[in-house]
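>> received
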Amino acid sequence: MKTAPGVTLIANGQLVDGTGRPAVADAAVVIREGTIAYAGPARGAPEVPPEVRRLDARGGTILPGLVEAHFHPTYFDVAELADLDIKYPVEYVTILAACNARLALECGYTAARSGGSLHNIDVWLKKAIEEDLIPGPRLAASGREICGAGGLMDWNPDHLKLGMEGLILLINGPDEARKAVRKLVKDGVEWIKTYPTGDAAAPDTADHHTLCMTFEEMAAVVSEAHNYRRKVTGHCRATQGIKNALRAGFDCLEHGTFMDGEALDLLLERNTPVVPALQFERASIEKGPAFGMPQAVVDGHKETLEGGAESARMILKAGGRLGMGGDYGFAWNPHGDYAKELTFFVRDVGFSPLETITCATKTGGEIMGRGHEIGTVEPGKLADLLVVDGDVLAEIALLEDRARFLAVIQGGAIKAGQLAAGSRSTARPEAGR
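>> returned
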């Protein structure tokens, strides 16, 4: 991905640098050749020639580009589980993924870690973004997911003979787990996504207290992935599944819903980050019934929301790490709503805006494995920034409103927002049109 040449000065706004430090009220950011050269009080900014590009923050907020830490680029208006693997042909899903990537960037998300993708589309999506063929967030790809036979993602009855090859790799035993990892590595993924536990969305298959992989299978995945210098994450809701994943050496947990004291101690000992993804649960409760979601499933999501919120509070209070994002692409939780997760954590979970932004930037960059390059506004890092017309610490919901974005900046180049060349607000595409 090319960086912008020359020098840019951003001034007249408060700086929320993503480190967790208090905001700098009258700040300036100097960008040289796509990299941050200075970030701090305007009075301490280095002299720049009068002809450099200048961006007026209009008294608003300068912050790091947001990181969507659980991004499903190939999910699109999913109304039932079967939609994930058989609703559209791979050719159309590829186009939809490109649209979702562009939309994520326009929503202020300059980086994203894939949480699973049909047909390894995210591997090639990443390549297209990095080669500037299409706009999108800097991407970490995970390709197809690994699930134990009969587990959460193995929902198609055998008599239909549909298979699941486009979405997951089904395994039964450690040897098959190792084989699946090798296949994914060969295909070019960076993260291995697994399903150690079930979910409220599929109570008839494997509910959110069910274990879907054995410890031996999980340990085999980790051993093989780490041999190839890849990282492993897993959909972990059940308490024992969380503990199994941590003891097996997982590098991240998705959801981490039902933590107990022992699980928390293991998490802190290993400094393993968690991506709770709670807005999905809230959206499922509020909007799921309109899409035919059974009451038993809604009730499961309620339990999941309550457990996940409490676990997130436990982790933050104890000094653990949390990323923000998750499971957008469902009909009731569509792409483009990413920042609702941040609003929910402030208004309902009880995080401060500064804590939430730190999770959505600094920790997100660390989860990506690129904390040395992105996630905070500090000298030497890539100039991936979001400039918002307004005080996001006073009203976190401003991050949901793309009309308030002055600039979404990637590598010093303005890619979206009011100040982007030919700026326009991309409406969320609707399938079938």
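>> Residues 425-433 have pLDDT under 50 and may be disordered.
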